[in-house]
Amino acid sequence: MQRVPLGERNGRVHSSTVTVSVLPDTRRGAPIPLKEGDLQLEWYSGSGAGGQHRNKHQNSVRLRHLPSGLVVTAQCRKREESLRQAREALLDRLRDLSEGEARGRENRARSDQVGTGMRADKRRTYRFRDDRVQDHLTGRSAACSAVMRGRFDLLWA
C-alpha cells in the first residue's frame, strides 16, 4: 500500500487531523492486448537520405490504432524492421496512455475519500477522554472502547 501525505494545504496539516484513503492495489506493466483488427497499416516511400533505394521502395510504415486514434511511423531499410519498430512505439504510447488514465482514476478516488483533508472535513470525532465517538455523517455516537474493538455498526444506520 502506498503512503501519500494527504490533507496538505500550503504544506501544513492541522495537528488533530488524520486522513486515510483505502485504494485497490493496481498492478503496473500488464500486457496490453493489440488486435490486428484494431490496426490500420499503410506503407509509403521514406524521405531523407538514401536516394534511389529510398524513393523506389515502400519500406516505411504508418501504423494507426483505430480505437485510440494514435498514429506512429517508422522508416527502416526493411519492412519487417519498420513494422516491428512501429508496433513497439505504439505499445509504449498505449501503455503510457493507459497508466495515465489509471493514475487519474486513483487520484480521483483518493480525493473523493479524503476531501481537502482540512479539519472542517471531519467524518468522525474520537473523544477518548469521554469514551465517545461521534459520526458526523450519520449523526450517531457510540462508546470509543466498543468502536475501537471493531463495532462500527453502532455508528451506522
TrEMBL record:
What are the start and end residues of every segment in region (Disordered)? 101-125
Q: Mind telling me which InterPro entries this protein's record contains?
A: Pep_chain_release_fac_I, Pep_chain_release_fac_I_sf, Prokaryotic/Mito_RF
Q: Where is the Prokaryotic-type class I peptide chain release factors domain positioned along the sequence? A: 33-136
SUPFAM superfamilies from the xrefs? Release factor
Pfam families referenced in this protein's UniProt entry, alphabetically: RF-1
Q: Does the keyword Phosphoprotein apply?
A: no
Molecular function GO terms recorded? translation release factor activity
The alphabetized UniProt keywords are: Methylation
User: Which residue ranges have biased composition labelled Basic and acidic residues?
Assistant: 101-111
The residue range of the signal peptide is none
Family annotation (PANTHER family): LD18447P (PTHR43804:SF7)
**Family that this chain belongs to:** Belongs to the prokaryotic/mitochondrial release factor family.
Can you say what this protein is called? RF-1 domain-containing protein
Q: Which organism is it from?
A: Gemmobacter caeni
